[in-house]
Every structure is written in C-alpha cells, then in structure tokens.
Specification:
Layout (H helix, E strand, L loop, with lengths): L2 H5 L2 E4 L6 E6 L6 E5 L10 H7 L4 E5 L15 H15 L4 E7 H12 L4 E9 L11 H8 L4 H6 L4 H5 L15 H8 L2 H13 L3 H12 L5 E6 L3 H4 L1 H10 L3 E7 L6 H4 L5 H8 L2
Parallel strand pairs: 3-4, 3-5, 5-6, 6-7, 7-8
Antiparallel strand pairs: 1-2, 2-4
Helix pairs in contact: 3-4, 4-10, 5-9
Length: 283
Amino acid sequence: MDVSTFTARRRSLPADGGEIAYTEFGDAAAPAALFVHGLATGGLMWRHVIEQLSGTTRCIAIDLPAHGGTPARADMSVAAMAEVLAELCGGLGLGKVDLVGNDTGGAICQIFAARYPGGLRSLTLTNCDTDGNFPPPEFAPMVELARQGKLADGFAGVAAGPASRAAGPLAGLYNDPATVPDEVWREYYGGGLDRARDVERMMAAFDPADLAAATPGLRALRVPTLIVWGTAEESNFGVKWAYQLREMIPGARDVIEVDGAKLLFPEERPDDLVPHLREFWGR
C-alpha cells in the first residue's frame, strides 16, 4: 500500500484528552485489530500488514500523540499512552480487540493488556521494550540527551532532504533503508521543530516503573499471546527478551523468530508477520 492511499483514510476521534488520529481499513462488522507503532514512526508503518489483513479484519492503526495526525499531550509517558488506546477503543466502540504492538508501542500494549485484559481478544508483540529492558541500556544515553533537550534540533534537521533522511536515526531500524520511499521519511520526520520537541519529550518521559507496574497484570494474563521477534536486534531488543515475555505471560505461545529481521520488519517485511497473524487469529 502506498503512503497516499493510507493517509487518505486517516480520521480523527475527539476525546477528553485531545484528538486521536487513526487510520482504518476493512469491514466494520469484522473482528477489530488495533496496531500500535513505536517512537518516531506512526500508524503508517503498519500499512502493508493492514493491506493484507483487511479482507477479514477491521484494521485500525493509531497515531500516538506527537506522531502522524495526533497532537501531543501534556503527559507523554507510556502509561498515559495506554490510556490513549483505551480512549480510542471506547470512542470507536471496538469491544474486544486483537492488539498488535512494535517497539515502544509494544510497551504501551503491555500496559494496556495489564490494565484492560477484558478488552483483548488476543495480544501480539513484535520487537519491543520489556520490564528490565526499558529503555534498553544502549538507548539510555539517548534518553538522557532527550531529558537535557539536546535531540530535537538534530531530529528536525533530518527533514532537510532525502539523502539526510535515509541516513537519519531511523535508518538503522531497517535492513535496507535505501528502499524506504521518501514520502515515508517525510511522514516520520515531518512536523518541524515543535513536533521534534514533542517526540523528545516522550523519550524524556521513559520510566522503567511504568512497565514494572504492568508485570503483575501480565503474569496473570491468560489472553492468547503471540510473540514474533526479529533476530537482528541484539543490541536493543535481543531474542532473550521475547522468551522472557513468553515465560511471563501465561497465555503466550512459542516465540516465532524472524531470521535477520530488524526492528521495523512489520513494515519492511510484512510477509514475515502476516501469515502468523492469520493463523493465530484463525481468519
């Protein structure tokens, strides 16, 4: 699916905490799946997965605050983001959802699952933060720079042109960043300095206590849980963390390892995720 096809379907839901942008494909009467992206990307990253699943599923990709079409909020913590998911689910009347998360979005999904297990039909986690690895040690210096207000200028500057975008901080999250369309980089890096400062503020709000607080709920979570994990993320999201999640969540099934895949494999390599979701969901 190209970027314009996806963004043409973007809608906004009024909510008490502020508007929430989301993009929806599929039959409104079909079972709903909610896709949650991570830091500095957007709901756009799920476009190829959604394209393949929308024939049997009501697919909804949220733009988290300060991403895509959703404005920032006063509280940019991952715990607050879990409440944004709850607002969207309630506002759209989704009932039980198949929740799918990646990167920081996976951490948000874990918090949502611990707080609202009755709102889930299933949970799928791809490479993401976990209790004991939030933020990952190698990423912690970036979080500290964000707290010092030293990242936004550089991030905003990446939007200067295609060459700099393809070599920017998100490039290393793909196996082959040169194949990423320029309109994707514009979507992720766009918004200027104000948006960059909001993303910086989200990073600065990373708090290990937020995920630690979700652990008791996850240890009691019997919702069917699928873990699909790229193996090329050893520095931040190594496969050992996938197995920790499997041991933690009673409803978790075996870990599916995606050989050589990097963090954004659901965008870059959707065929390594979609068949597993089809089988897991039974549709």
